[in-house]
Amino acid sequence: MPDAIRYRPEDARVATRFAGIRTFMKLPWVTGDLTGADFAVIGAPCDGGTTFRSGAAFGPSAIREMSVMLRSGNLNLDVDIFRYLSGVDRGDAEVNPCDLRDSHRGIERAFDDAVRQGVLTIGLGGDHSVTLPQLRAVARRHGPVALVQFDAHLDTYDTENGSGLTHGTIFRRAVEEGLLDAKRSIQVGARGLFGTGAIRESEELGFTVIPAKDVHERGIEWTAGRILETVGDRKVHLTVDIDFFDPAFAPGTGTPEVGGFSSWEGLKLLRSVGGLDFVGFDVVEVLPSHDPTQITAYLAGCVVQEFLAVLAAKRRAGKEADRG
Amino acid sequence: MPDAIRYRPEDARVATRFAGIRTFMKLPWVTGDLTGADFAVIGAPCDGGTTFRSGAAFGPSAIREMSVMLRSGNLNLDVDIFRYLSGVDRGDAEVNPCDLRDSHRGIERAFDDAVRQGVLTIGLGGDHSVTLPQLRAVARRHGPVALVQFDAHLDTYDTENGSGLTHGTIFRRAVEEGLLDAKRSIQVGARGLFGTGAIRESEELGFTVIPAKDVHERGIEWTAGRILETVGDRKVHLTVDIDFFDPAFAPGTGTPEVGGFSSWEGLKLLRSVGGLDFVGFDVVEVLPSHDPTQITAYLAGCVVQEFLAVLAAKRRAGKEADRG
Amino acid sequence: MPDAIRYRPEDARVATRFAGIRTFMKLPWVTGDLTGADFAVIGAPCDGGTTFRSGAAFGPSAIREMSVMLRSGNLNLDVDIFRYLSGVDRGDAEVNPCDLRDSHRGIERAFDDAVRQGVLTIGLGGDHSVTLPQLRAVARRHGPVALVQFDAHLDTYDTENGSGLTHGTIFRRAVEEGLLDAKRSIQVGARGLFGTGAIRESEELGFTVIPAKDVHERGIEWTAGRILETVGDRKVHLTVDIDFFDPAFAPGTGTPEVGGFSSWEGLKLLRSVGGLDFVGFDVVEVLPSHDPTQITAYLAGCVVQEFLAVLAAKRRAGKEADRG
Amino acid sequence: MPDAIRYRPEDARVATRFAGIRTFMKLPWVTGDLTGADFAVIGAPCDGGTTFRSGAAFGPSAIREMSVMLRSGNLNLDVDIFRYLSGVDRGDAEVNPCDLRDSHRGIERAFDDAVRQGVLTIGLGGDHSVTLPQLRAVARRHGPVALVQFDAHLDTYDTENGSGLTHGTIFRRAVEEGLLDAKRSIQVGARGLFGTGAIRESEELGFTVIPAKDVHERGIEWTAGRILETVGDRKVHLTVDIDFFDPAFAPGTGTPEVGGFSSWEGLKLLRSVGGLDFVGFDVVEVLPSHDPTQITAYLAGCVVQEFLAVLAAKRRAGKEADRG
Amino acid sequence: MPDAIRYRPEDARVATRFAGIRTFMKLPWVTGDLTGADFAVIGAPCDGGTTFRSGAAFGPSAIREMSVMLRSGNLNLDVDIFRYLSGVDRGDAEVNPCDLRDSHRGIERAFDDAVRQGVLTIGLGGDHSVTLPQLRAVARRHGPVALVQFDAHLDTYDTENGSGLTHGTIFRRAVEEGLLDAKRSIQVGARGLFGTGAIRESEELGFTVIPAKDVHERGIEWTAGRILETVGDRKVHLTVDIDFFDPAFAPGTGTPEVGGFSSWEGLKLLRSVGGLDFVGFDVVEVLPSHDPTQITAYLAGCVVQEFLAVLAAKRRAGKEADRG
Amino acid sequence: MPDAIRYRPEDARVATRFAGIRTFMKLPWVTGDLTGADFAVIGAPCDGGTTFRSGAAFGPSAIREMSVMLRSGNLNLDVDIFRYLSGVDRGDAEVNPCDLRDSHRGIERAFDDAVRQGVLTIGLGGDHSVTLPQLRAVARRHGPVALVQFDAHLDTYDTENGSGLTHGTIFRRAVEEGLLDAKRSIQVGARGLFGTGAIRESEELGFTVIPAKDVHERGIEWTAGRILETVGDRKVHLTVDIDFFDPAFAPGTGTPEVGGFSSWEGLKLLRSVGGLDFVGFDVVEVLPSHDPTQITAYLAGCVVQEFLAVLAAKRRAGKEADRG
Q: Is F73 within 8 Å of E193 when comparing Cβ atoms?
């Protein structure tokens, strides 16, 4: 069966991890036809939507640099990812460092091309604004999707500092564009908001909001339950803003917010909603310039690895069911 | 009602956060008459009392730098601070970099001036020795107060390295000077002590001591209960040494101590004792030179923000009661 | 005579440097009428024009932080600045983090307001694109000016990465807008160019270009001579991109270029052209996130201090001439 | 009784901590006869066995640098270590930076010399490969011992990147050499493995394995119970890989793994197995080049301090029993 | 003519530099047939030969990360490199993190394969020991070559810390293996030696040695003259240890030595010997863990760029001669 | 002859440099009788006299950490130090972190003890105030000495920020105490002064002052000549403030000043005045918290090594003269 897997990393137990060009997990760099790939990692090196610290445009590169340490095995789900999945690194979308809308067009093109070919896209940000063009690509194929958002913020302001298009407004824009089924969408971990009215504004758009406080007080399992219940069987785009995690665990981000979650909690939450029907995924807001020990970039890579493990475990379960 | 609020920050949803002179939260810088202000933030840039890493004199500046990211809204208490409170940044006290006692005199003058005008002072340290002159100013107006101290240390040694006045001796000095009602005072989070006798020595001064171990094992709510019970209705100065938090959450401090608390735990504890009658507050021991990702400075700012939210929520409750 | 000086810093020999709100050199923060001021420092916290590392929006704050170490005395010119000059910090221009043109409008407004009041403006960047709105303000009052540019780059591309407005295109735009007298303008220190044709393109716009190689081989005095000769008696805006200096001296910048100049060489060059008729000045491209030891921010402050000393020495010379 | 203690640190309440040559805890540096010492700290500055980030050879020095902040008192166990224990710093083993086997010979000699003299050795790594020569020294005296391993990895691969001797293979080698009683040995905290089969391979060697997931889900007390049950009354070498802790708490390590443990959890686990019969101890994989705030080095020192406190508390209990 | 150039980077004036997989200069990654390439960049991520700080194995990746800022144009030589040269990134050699000799075999294989195909190899270290296998590959094709070595050290010890194969012994080994024509070889910049006899030892092997002092006192041109005179028309391998530069310019290296050279001096020296007949080139000893501002990695890339510009200028001169 | 040398470092060509307790250059740590030693290195870990960034108290430790890379051989003077000199590390003076005068007493005691025993002391600071107690010890034995000061500052203010005893006032104090023969003393490199009158004030005390500008414009040799001429045959204490060097070369210092000197220039100047009759030496103001790449600490160590080489070369010359 594994020989059916076309694209996988070198075996890191054999090939030295610190050697080689930095593709994500040292997966093959495939720029053309995606036949034979289940997923494609695509960088979205754009930080034109940021309203505080900038520099997230270097996020994809930093994530790839540490991703060479990621391994195929995932103990939490007891699965070896590349026995069940085939994946590639597709490089980065074309961006325009001085024109956010133009960058978004480039990102949309890159994701659209992959989505059309039927692979699941794994976006590496970039500031959170890069999720908007990803949703455009995803919704073009799948129709309005549910959003599951792990994030210290809601990103549903109407305008921020005079702009309607920032990393803090994109999910309002996505609703307005009809990309999301807000009623099936849920925002988890909010704690850094300009005012207390922001939650209400997000709810008025249709989103369910679980502030950080509720996650802390009711626990990861309760939270997962709320997510599963809200989304149901809707197709889902899962977006993980690395600032969902506490700054202790993810210092390298543009707008860190204290009172966040540990790496264990975040990965557990991700696994706990593994049963959803994912059609898109991204991790955003890694800021290498504030990540001197690289733990943020590595955590972002681990979030991707956990997500891939979820997919692999489902694929395995499917195969076992077939054989059953 | 909000128009009764004289001093508040710009609306960060409108004004770009990274623009502007760095006052705390971009509050107005008011150096003279404080009429119309409920609180005044005052820096105490002094590290002459430190016995290990120095550099905390740059703490106030570092806290202000990151404080531009703080927002008026506080989700944990569901309150918008500046609907209920008016506050200013008063700049820094005058200090003498080579004479600790002279620095303390300058700090006392700065706080005394504000306390006399009836505003609540928010001190930004500086090493923990700066709390002593603050207590002098507070006690001059309010008489001996209860101390609530979140700290990895007790700071009640008699002498340290040959000096009677260090950041490790000040609360003994404060008791001796009659500034504190030690019987109503409580020290929470102790774990970094030279010897096991130190707790006993602190207790002999009258303090109640809750070591870190008890907080970990019995929980935040139990701890809050012990604090409320000890202090009762005494007027309180709350002092937060940033090393109360684990070094993972607050690496930038002079004497970090492992086995500490998460940012969530610390802020929750603070909220949980919100019912106390506060007359003074400070956060100390931020060391920018060991805070490359600025998470410590930001956490210190968040501690202040949480405290302000507590005050605002009480003010709101009072107004609602009035209207009731 | 000194009592005629309205705005000056505290005497740093008396007032502790690390205490106090961080205005530039701890000058008074004056936001309204500028009567009595010779110069006004204005921050332009904008990095929307950057095409490589971003983060220069935090430059003004970082320069101010280290500027508290700057002193009134300048040994190289044997002058005490504030015996002859009066100056203020005007804070930052309003910017829009996600809209470069809007930021430029805000910057233009801030500088225009000061220029109109007859003070010389000292701009603190920000990426180099912020010089464009400064030139608009300067040229509105003074007509097309000569540009003297110390810079590793020319910033006269037509487009860069698909944008016509970046930190690499602004001086072409300035020529097109009629803000500059390019024939009287000179670019010094170029070494980081995409292609060798770039110099020719700049020359075709009218600029004189002195590549880094010529400065190294012919020396600072020769270079100064070329500048003086080119500019003549034209009114001058002097713009210093901190990447003029070698990365050893100024690591904290967005596009460092090796083979640059020492701090001594740069300051000497600045002094050597002190006889020019300056009507505007700025220092740009300080990137705090890559400046862990703060030497870049401090160097930028020293560049300003040297420029102020040049002005002061000229003022002194004028006074002495009056008395003569 | 205390006067029977031959070697102890200066009293840090008297002697300034940041003064003096950096021996561990400022203990006496004793290179010859160890009579009168209960334990000896020995550095193993070797990173030739590392397969990812190197630099752990500077670990012993970094641990010593921060160890001057360690204190004799331990609140968790309510014991003053040097009332019951006498200890020295023996400096570092001789190593060969370019020959791992030669380094291991030097390390074995250094530990063997101390073990023969009957003192308990405290090893400071170095990459985890340095535990192998320590086990050789320990087993020569005590016969095959039980291993208790706190670690994100298992280190029981057969080969890694073409080498049979790396920091990832040493415990397989130790079993093959008859140094360990694998049936009595236990590995706690595993989460970073190349494949899911690695646990089975370790179990086939005889080890009991408790993955990180089980520790998180069942708790520290359950884990301690499993350790005590597995080891029984076997003599034990306890090895703590600092990557057992989450990267938030220990960023400075060669192969950080997210989803790890807090400092409080780790120290509690250590205390909870204090009843074991320890004959060797080491802490490894501190990487100073990725530890800008020194919190990893300090945590490693605190792990040693907690272990010494465990020993001291047992010694005290023994004395009390004698008196009883 | 340019259309004859098969492999070149994207035009960085069009394609955003921070986007894309990090190959050197964003050159095509070509792993098979090298037809059509003039040069091939090959990483040698090995630090098993280091005797002080380790971590240079991450050097190739760090150089590539910053190399995206390198441009085709070189002003010093007034040449656009890729009008005359075609080049690729071949990725990294296979290395064994725990076995230096095995790593050297892998490096030799990688370079040998490229050298056999007739391309000039550009090695990116790694510690200086990686030059030895490069010389083996070069000498296999070209016979014993002249070595031109820019370096703070001589690397001709017989043994170092008990090993005969370290980054400090390799050029003695190369002489013994007959890879070098020592009489035609020259070592420039020496200043960090264990004893004053080391120069004599190097001279006894046949090398000409120019200590740093002579370069400083007699200048770059004199030094270049000595190099040209020594080497004559011998085929040359030029090896640049980044520690040739002063730590101010290249802090990120394993054994920095003060009293070194500026970036301008080093690049000028390189250009000044451009007339030599180069058959191999490498730059080594970049240590990313000590390069927080990336200036060392960038300088290493600039050294390569300057070397490529030298080659391009010669190619241009040849073409012009052909046309003449 | 070498066997007459009692105390020397291990041979670093044999003993691995990164192994071992960090004494200076890994010299023997000798705390009692100094018979057989020519020099003694003594740390003065005190920063209570600092008026800007603090943290220099950790300087001695940081210098020692990097000093393990220093070698016995000095190429510039062609001498192997420990063929002619015997030296020890004496550890640190006792200091009081919160009482500057008490620290000075401890430092004076430590140096006095060594000076009395007839060894030359090598002080490692600490802020520059630590030179005052060293001068007391030196002058007690040798009478008033000449001071040769390499420094960006003069340190002859009368008071600074309200204190008469700071790192900026000590040489005025030394003159007042009769420790210096100011007429024979010389201050080289001044550039960071509060006002232009400071030079005059220093000259009025008797000092000769050579500002940085003169050194730059007239060169190292001219400067050396001025020093030799001023001092004549007076006994000399040479004090090197690391801020004499430009921040590019020595970023890790409390009050960096741009426009300074390269490492080559500084060491050359030191060698050029080697003929003076030295009776004391220190290097001060190393600030590890701002020295992430350790180049400042290493430069400080190299300054000591160069000074020792000067002494060794003189000793050699004397021996050769004896034999002549």
A: yes
d(CA B264, CA B254): 22
Q: Rounded to a whole number, what is the distance in Å from the CA of C251 to chain F's nearest CA?
A: 9
| B12-53 pLDDT tens trace | 888 999 999 999 999 999 999 999 999 999 999 999 999 999
The contact set of F with C (CB < 8 A) is 51-53, 157, 159-162, 190-199, 211-213, 216, 246-249, 251-252, 255-256, 258-260, 262, 290-292
Q: Do F96 and B47 touch (CB under 8 A)?
A: no
- Beta-bridge partner residues of E240: E150, E283
Question: What residue has token string 């001296």?
Answer: C249
Contacts of F89 in chain D (CB under 8 A): 21
Specify whether the CB–CB gap between B170 and B144 falls below 8 A.
Answer: no
| D249 in Cβ contact with D260 (< 8 Å) | yes
Provide ipTM, 2 decimals.
0.96
In a mutagenesis test of the C interface, which of B10, B11, B14, B16 is the best target, namely the one with the most C β-carbons within 10 Å?
A: B16
| Cβ contacts of A4 within 8 Å, gap of 6 or more | none
Give contacts of D194 with chain A, Cβ < 8 Å.
11-13, 71-73
Query: Whole-model pTM above 0.95?
Result: yes
HSE of B154, CA atoms in CB hemisphere, 13 A: 33
Residues 6+ apart with CB under 8 A from F167: F49, F50, F51, F127, F128, F129, F155, F254, F285
CA–CA separation, C60 and C123 (whole Å): 9
Q: Is residue D23 part of a domain?
A: yes
Tell me the torsion sign for CA atoms E166, E169, E174, E177.
negative
Dist CA F28 CA F6 (whole Å): 10
- Output the pLDDT for position B195: 85
DSSP-derived letter for residue E87 is: E
Query: Smallest Cβ distance to C191: which of E75, E248, E268?
Result: E75
What pLDDT does residue A324 have? Answer: 63
Tell me the CATH number at A304: 3.40.800.10
| Bridging pattern class, strands E120-125 and E39-44 | parallel
**Residue F231 structural domain:** 2-323
- Residue A254, token pair as written in the block: 């543009």
Question: To the nearest whole angstrom, how far is the Cα of C87 from the nearest Cα of chain B?
Answer: 16
Q: Using a CB-CB distance cutoff of 8 angstroms, which residues of chain F are in contact with residue B49?
A: 98
Report how far apart, in Å, the C-alpha atoms of A259 and of each of A243, B222, B295, E270, F80 are: 10, 20, 12, 54, 58
Residue E80's alpha-carbon distances to B35, C161, D235, E69, E299, in angstroms, are: 68, 19, 70, 15, 19
Query: Best interface-test mutation with F: which of E258, E290, E296, E299 has the largest number of F CBs within 10 A?
Result: E258
Residue of E nearest to C259 (CA): E264
CB C13 within 8 A of CB C62: no
CA atoms within a 13 Å half-sphere pointing along the CA-CB vector of B71: 25
Taken in order F313, F317, F318, F320, the sign of the CA dihedral is: positive
Give tens-digit pLDDT for E248-301: 999 999 999 999 999 999 999 999 999 999 999 999 999 999 999 999 999 999
**Judging by DSSP bridges, how do beta strands D120-125 and D146-150 pair with one another?**
unpaired
Rounded to 10 degrees, the C-alpha dihedral E27/E31/E34/E38 comes to: 30
Number of structural domains (chain F) is 1
F285/chain D closest Cα distance in angstroms: 16
Six token digits for residue A106: 């480039």
Q: Look at D75 and B248 and tell me if their CB atoms are within 8 Å.
A: no
Alpha-carbon gap: A48 to the closest alpha carbon of chain C (Å): 6
Q: Is the pLDDT of residue D3 over 90?
A: no
| Whether A161 and B13 lie within 8 Å, measured CB to CB | yes
What would the DSSP string read from start to end of F247-265? Answer: TTT---SSS--SS-B-HHH
